[in-house]
Amino acid sequence: MPCRHVVVVLKEMNMHPYNYCSDYYAKKNWLATYAETVYPIGHQSEWEVPDEVKDIIVLSPHERVKSGRPKTLRRKAGWEKDKHNKCRKCGELGHNKRTCSRRHRKYK
Predict the structure, then answer these.
(1) Contacts of range 14-21, beta carbons closer than 8 Å, 24 or more positions apart
(2) Which of 72, 97, 71 is CA-nearest to residue 86?
(3) DSSP 17
(4) In which element (H, E) is residue 58 found?
(5) Which residues, including other chains, have CB under 8 Å from residue 89's CB and lie 6 or more apart?
(6) What DSSP assignment string belongs to 15-27?
(7) ∠ CA(33), CA(34), CA(39), 5° rounding?
(8) CA–CA gap between residue 54 and residue 47 (Å, rounded)
(9) Tens-digit pLDDT profile for residues 42-93
């Protein structure tokens, strides 16, 4: 399903939002999914598990989970420009007034 922002844009463009939805969300597919009876599974001790599945050993991942919110890299749109620090004293990019190497010089 498209998010609500996309739905608003599609409505502004006089386009039908359901044309951009997956067929999984169509009414006929929902009805077909639940048309058959779904039986609950029994207790785990009653399961018939093949030997080749029982012999599989699942190991934990080797990666260490870092604490905190994960960093994400956002792709910038074509109209967005990269932000660079611009020095107020010399006007060059890449540093600011406080870290300017020419900060003790006098400008006229």
Answers:
(1) none
(2) 97
(3) G
(4) none
(5) 97, 100, 102, 103, 107
(6) --GGGGS-GGGSH
(7) 115
(8) 12
(9) 898 888 889 999 899 998 888 888 888 888 888 888 787 777 788 888 888 8
Please give the structure tokens belonging to residue 103: 């900060």
The pLDDT-based confidence of 31 (bands split at 50, 70, 90) is: very high
The whole-model pTM stands at: 0.29
Query: How far apart, in whole angstroms, are the C-alpha atoms of residue 44 and residue 78?
Result: 54
Residue 27 is inside which H or E element, if any?
helix 27-33
Tokens (6 digits) for 41 = 């599974």
Q: How far is CA 74 from CA 11, 59, 66, 68, in A?
A: 27, 32, 20, 18
Measuring CA to CA, which residue among 38, 41, 61 is closest to residue 49?
Answer: 41
Q: Mapping DSSP to helix (H, G, I), strand (E, B) and coil, where does residue 36 land? A: coil
Side-chain-facing half-sphere of 52: CA atoms under 13 Å: 0
Residues paired with residue 93 on neighbouring β-strands, in sequence order: 86
